Q: What sequence folds into this?
């Protein structure tokens, strides 16, 4: 009997392909179709923000940030992945007791040392229920597997937490060498195309200017971890850059009711 505890996939076959070869083809296609920013140096990237919807909608936008990570393989051993809770009401932030997170591409080991260290924070709780059906983390894993290869994961589900609390967690986690931060967030939800474009443009400006107080749930479903990252960025001299901003009306859906997606890198 295997003593290791594995968090199985919850949304494979719904948000992204469950067949490994099909999944590889799809993610590879998004990455290869993404245009690089020649002024952006991948080796300087400390954190990214990327969306978490079904791949046909948000995959091309997510790839705009993930395309740079292939150049970071030798620099990244750990990934701190923080996404908003969609299913479980939660105060603070939740870690997982799992040893591995599974995807159709294989198991990703959890860094128990960093996880246990984060569990010492008063606003962090080990809560597997928060992770069980949460898609905001899972959809990022195949992109990470394909771009980084081998790494250890620290998955965090964010509930009701202040920018200061998220900043404290990020600071403690990024104290470890060779660690990358990934924040999972979509942007505006269910507006008409023009309204969404205006809201999402405002969100891009807020992120690029590290304006914590300009972001709320109307701008980004992952605004809680995003605001924590912006606070960390202000304190540590990081610069944010928008590398893509589109919505479902641009990728695979109608334009009367769209969801916005943005991709950002922090150097």
A:
């Amino acid at each position: 009997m295997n003593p290791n505890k594995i968090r199985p996939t919850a949304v494979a076959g719904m948000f992204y392909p469950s067949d490994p070869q099909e999944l590889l083809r799809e993610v590879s296609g998004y990455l290869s179709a993404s245009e690089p920013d020649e002024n952006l140096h991948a080796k300087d990237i400390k954190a990214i923000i990327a969306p978490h919807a079904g791949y046909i909608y948000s995959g091309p936008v997510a790839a705009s940030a993930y395309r740079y990570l292939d150049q970071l393989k030798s620099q990244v051993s750990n990934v701190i992945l923080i996404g908003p809770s969609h299913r479980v009401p939660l105060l603070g932030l939740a870690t997982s007791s799992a040893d591995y997170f599974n995807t159709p591409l294989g198991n990703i080991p959890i860094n128990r040392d960093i996880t246990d260290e984060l569990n010492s924070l008063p606003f962090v709780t080990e809560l597997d229920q928060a992770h069980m059906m949460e898609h905001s983390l899972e959809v990022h894993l195949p992109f990470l597997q394909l771009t980084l290869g081998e790494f250890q994961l620290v998955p965090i589900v964010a509930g009701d937490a202040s920018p200061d609390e998220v900043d404290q967690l990020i600071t403690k986690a990024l104290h470890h060498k060779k660690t990358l931060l990934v924040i999972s967030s979509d942007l505006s939800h269910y507006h008409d195309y023009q309204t969404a474009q205006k809201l999402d443009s405002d969100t891009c400006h807020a992120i690029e200017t590290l304006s914590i107080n300009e972001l709320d749930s109307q701008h980004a479903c992952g605004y809680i971890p995003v605001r924590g990252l912006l606070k960390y960025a202000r304190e540590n001299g990081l610069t944010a850059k928008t590398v893509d901003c589109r919505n479902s009306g641009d990728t695979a859906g109608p334009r009367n009711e769209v969801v916005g997606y943005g991709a950002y890198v922090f150097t």
